[in-house]
Each structure stands twice: as structure tokens, then as C-alpha cells.
Specification:
By secondary structure, the chain is of the alpha/beta class. The strands form four sheets. Strands 7-6-10-11-12 form a five-stranded parallel β-sheet, with helices on both faces.
């Protein structure tokens, strides 16, 4: 049976059963959520010690659990770990790079990847931060899946951020937030007010600090691209460099896009439109084009939900093997583009 134990309980003869923190975190999170067949022995003790501190957002909780396991105060023991933290010497003929070491791997254990791409696995970095922000509502398994793919190809410190008013609220806010929003004005019982907007990591539900040495990257998909753009501008105006700002399927205005490109602290703005997938949304579109695209967007959303095929704008939101492949290929592309 799978076991979650404290370091003091580890038998040296079972060290080869310890799963690496990267792959163990998801299993521990599933056990905490009551998922999985049979559960994990010892999870109740782990929960008593840590669950109250874990973020309710799954992707952030996964990162927190990884950090706990990285400290080696707790270990997850599996009969057949995918990537043992303390591997035995193996004699099979296939190998996969893992950090600075190599682990030999049997063909049946290998995950699916495009044939032309080598597998590069990366442990959680000590520095570097790449924030991924999903579409309207910022929910769905595709988000945690994309984080896993980013980490798997070696993009350091990939975690998810979240700031949302729900799917309808986010969709309605696109018209406003496709332009720079530095402050919000209004009228209260005490009179008019104007407050600065907060696009900090903390506002995105992220407890990590800005990296001191590694890259600081922001990746946004659809609604998340607008949040990523606002966050990049927020930090750039405070003197922080953003290495890569990646906008995927973005309805951002041309005015905002031009300002981002002219901001010295934002080293690179990378646009990934999904027009080849018949998405009518594209970076720099006018408000007239945006409104005209809404019927097509609604049809693609419905088709994607009914067929689970990820149509048009929802190309990277599909579940299953095809979605995993698409998100893996996106991560590989971003790695080639220079994200670390």
C-alpha cells in the first residue's frame, strides 16, 4: 500500500520506493481530497500537520505540498515510483534526463510525448517564477495540467495564479481590462473615491516572492492574458523586470499591446494567437471585432463541451490525451522561446 511517512520512519531498505516531490505532490493532494483507490496510509497524520495551511486553490496547494516533500520531512513511498528520489542502479537500455542526473526507465513506464522531442524533467527550482493564468473563471483541470507540462520541460517555478469574479464576471470585464487599468474610481456614501489597482502576486493568490536571480515570466490564456498584461505593467512600473510576457488567445487592445511592447522593463512580449484553429479572438483586435466574435466564441464553447475536442479559442482547454499533447507541445514551444 502507498504510504506517507515522516523521515524518521524511513527504512533504508525502502529508500528506492520514495517518489520524487514533483510526482508525489499530485498523489498526496488527491489523497487529501479523498480521491484515488485505497487512499494513502498516513495521509491523516500529514493532513493534521499541514492541511490547514494549504491553499484552497489546487495548483497552489500542489506547489506547497511539493515544498513540504522537498524538505524531506515527509516521504511518499510507492511500490513502483515513477521517478524515485533515491533510485536503485538500473540496467535497462532507456534513460531520461532528470535535473543533473539520469534515471533509466523501461518503455512501459515512459509517459506519452511527441516523438521528436526529448523528455526533460526539472525539479522545483530554488529561484525563478513563471505564473500561469487561465481563462475566465480560472478553473479546470487544464490549468494544473499546463503547470505540470511547464515544469516537466524545465520551465522553473511554474505555478498558477488566480484572480476571478467567476466565468460570467470575467467575461463581462474583458471590455474594460483589455486596456490598462491602474486605478478604479467610484462613488461611495462618503463621496467619490479613486484607488490604485492591485495586480501583485499576493492579489493573484501567490505567496512566493519575486525571483532574485531566475526569470520572472507571466503566461496568460484568454482572460488570463489580460490579468498577465496588467500584472506585467504593474510590476514594470515599480521597477521590476519581466523576462517574458506570453499572451495566448488574447483579446487585448492594440493600445495596451503597444504600451507593453514599449515598456523597457518588459523584455519580451510573445503573442500566440489561435487563429489557425479558427479562433476569432486575436491580440490587437478592435472592440468592434471583439463584439462580432462573441457568437463564434459561444459556438466553440458549446462544441468543445459537447465533443470534448477543444474547438477554436478553447484549443488548450481540452481534457484527455489530446489535450495533454497540446499543452505539452505549448510548454515545449515556450521552452524553445527562451522561458526558463
Amino acid at each position: 500500500m502507498d504510504r506517507l511517512i515522516k523521515s524518521s520512519q524511513l527504512d533504508q531498505l525502502e529508500k528506492h520506493k520514495v517518489e520524487s516531490p514533483f510526482f508525489a505532490a499530485g498523489k498526496v493532494q488527491d489523497a487529501l481530497d479523498g480521491k484515488g483507490i485505497g487512499g494513502i496510509y498516513g495521509v491523516s497524520e500529514f493532513a493534521a500537520e499541514h492541511k490547514k495551511w494549504l491553499n484552497p486553490i489546487r495548483s497552489i496547494a500542489l506547489s506547497q505540498i511539493e515544498t513540504i516533500l522537498e524538505s524531506q520531512q515527509w516521504y511518499l513511498l510507492l511500490e513502483r515510483p515513477f521517478s524515485p528520489l533515491f533510485p536503485k542502479t538500473l540496467s535497462t537500455s532507456q534513460s531520461v534526463t532528470f535535473g543533473s542526473a539520469q534515471r533509466l526507465q523501461t518503455e512501459s513506464e515512459q509517459p506519452y510525448t511527441p516523438a521528436h522531442t526529448p523528455i526533460i524533467e526539472s525539479p522545483i527550482p530554488k529561484d525563478g517564477l513563471t505564473v500561469y493564468l487561465g481563462g475566465a473563471g480560472m478553473e479546470g483541470d487544464y490549468i494544473s495540467s499546463q503547470i505540470e507540462k511547464l515544469r516537466f520541460v524545465g520551465i522553473d517555478g511554474a505555478i498558477a495564479g488566480k484572480i476571478t469574479e467567476g466565468l460570467p464576471g470575467d467575461a463581462a470585464a474583458v471590455i474594460k481590462y483589455r486596456y490598462p487599468v491602474r486605478s478604479i474610481s467610484g462613488l461611495s456614501a462618503t463621496g467619490p473615491y479613486k484607488i490604485s489597482t492591485d495586480w501583485s502576486l499576493k492579489a493573484l493568490g501567490i505567496s512566493r516572492q519575486l525571483p532574485k536571480n531566475g526569470q520572472f515570466n507571466l503566461i496568460g490564456y484568454s482572460w488570463g492574458s489580460l490579468v498577465a498584461a496588467q500584472t506585467a505593467l504593474f510590476y514594470a512600473e515599480k521597477g521590476t523586470f519581466i523576462d517574458h510576457l506570453v499572451l495566448i488567445g488574447s483579446p487585448i487592445s492594440q493600445e495596451f499591446l503597444s504600451e507593453l511592447r514599449e515598456t523597457d522593463k518588459i523584455k519580451r512580449v510573445l503573442i500566440i494567437d489561435l487563429t489557425e484553429q479558427n479562433d476569432k479572438i486575436h491580440a490587437g483586435m478592435s472592440e468592434t471585432e471583439l463584439i462580432a466574435s462573441l457568437p463564434s466564441l459561444g459556438e466553440q464553447m458549446l462544441d468543445s463541451q459537447l465533443s470534448d475536442s477543444g474547438q477554436g479559442h478553447f484549443f488548450y482547454g481540452i481534457a484527455g490525451k489530446e489535450g495533454e499533447t497540446r499543452r505539452r507541445e505549448l510548454a515545449e514551444r515556450l521552452k524553445v522561446e527562451g522561458l526558463q
